[in-house]
Amino acid sequence: MGRHPYSGVYRGKGDMPIEKAIIQHRFAYGKFSFKKLIYPPPNSVGLSIVTAEVAELFERAFAETGVHSGARPGAVEWWSVLETLEKQLKRCSHESAHYYYSDLVNCPWCTFEESSGVLLFLSGDSVTKIDLSAEWRRVMTVRPPGPVTRISPGNYHVQPASLPLDLEKSFRRTKLRFVAGGLILALGGIGIWLGMYLVFIPALIIAEILFLYPGKELREMNRRKNLLKNARYGWHVWKTKWESEAGDDTFRTQLDRLYVLKHRYETLETEYKTALASLQKTTRDRHQKKFLENYNLDASRFRDIGADKKAWLWSHGIRTAADITRSNLAGSCPLDRIQREELISWRKSIEKLFLFDPTKGTDTSDSLALIHTFQPRLKPVERELQSGIERIIRVQQEIMHKRATLKPIVEKSAQELAQAETNVKAMKILGIF
After folding, report:
1. For the segment 218-277, what is each residue's pLDDT rounded down to a tens digit?
2. Is 391 found in the same domain as 270?
3. Torsion over CA of 32, 33, 39 and 41, rounded to 10 degrees?
4. Residues 347 and 433 grouped into a single domain
5. What 3 state SS string does 260-287 have?
6. Are 223 and 372 in contact (CB under 8 A)?
């Protein structure tokens, strides 16, 4: 693939120039390259795609053993091993331009092109390999997940958890303490109004004790508040997970991308068909041009055009009858009008000898050139479109699976939050703050 055998990714300290790598036998594709801290470069294939015999020749050629006399394989040995490998090659079923070692499970060139996005080989049989209509029908069969079901604590109408009997008794006692504390404070206030200041201080102390005496219901209120805090946190976590993993944003994004790729593919395909139609339409002109290219100026004799004028024409790219046009002979051409007309007449006389055969159709070389122009543009779109279809199928399945598995958990979290909020609200209504 045009890479130097010692050009790889060096994972040691400092730089590793090619010259130094050669001296130290740091063969990037060798089976012991890791010991020398050198690895194959990105987007490359290793010796695993060839037979063990071919791989061994590479090892002998570029590893330390190659420095010994007679150790490096010679041309005859290479010829023999490569000829054996050639007989063991098979054609890829997906891409006619790919051939690979028959013992491999998958085509390494398909794998390389898919991972790197680089088109290595241009095929000459067709510009594309897929049926867009059939591929798009696959997309249309994928059922959109649709918006995710809205789950909210507000959807649940729950009853507050009832207080145990001992808590109810404690709550009644707390109310009595609050009433008693209020009365005592009132009496203390009356005492101050009557000038009995010594009565206010004991009244204040007693009232404070009655108000601040911890009851069981206050501990219950704190417990319920902690449960509410935990329920809110849990609901936030599961709500976020539900909306991100069970939502259809990823599906819609992928579908939008497929529509863009489909449009791009159709545009390129239309451009190719237009170019092919134009090619077929101008078949006669191209056949005539090739016919005229067989008549060289040097091989022809002219009355008014000598060797010096022919040399000038040759240096300016006017070498055959096909090059004789009025536009080519205009400008700084040193020929006079008579000489130009002689060349034009010469071309016309040759044109009369041309007989067009419509049965020959478009030349293979012209069709192949057109395929090789559009194939590198269509292939990446084709590859991304196919992988995108597989991805959207997986995304749809993953979303539906997430909805099935997450929904009971999210609903439980919402219900727990609704219950916790109701329980705290009930305590507040009772006057326990």
Report:
1. 677 788 899 999 999 999 999 999 999 999 999 999 999 999 999 999 999 999 999 888
2. yes
3. -100
4. no
5. HHHHHHHHHHHHHHHHHHHHHHCHHHHH
6. no
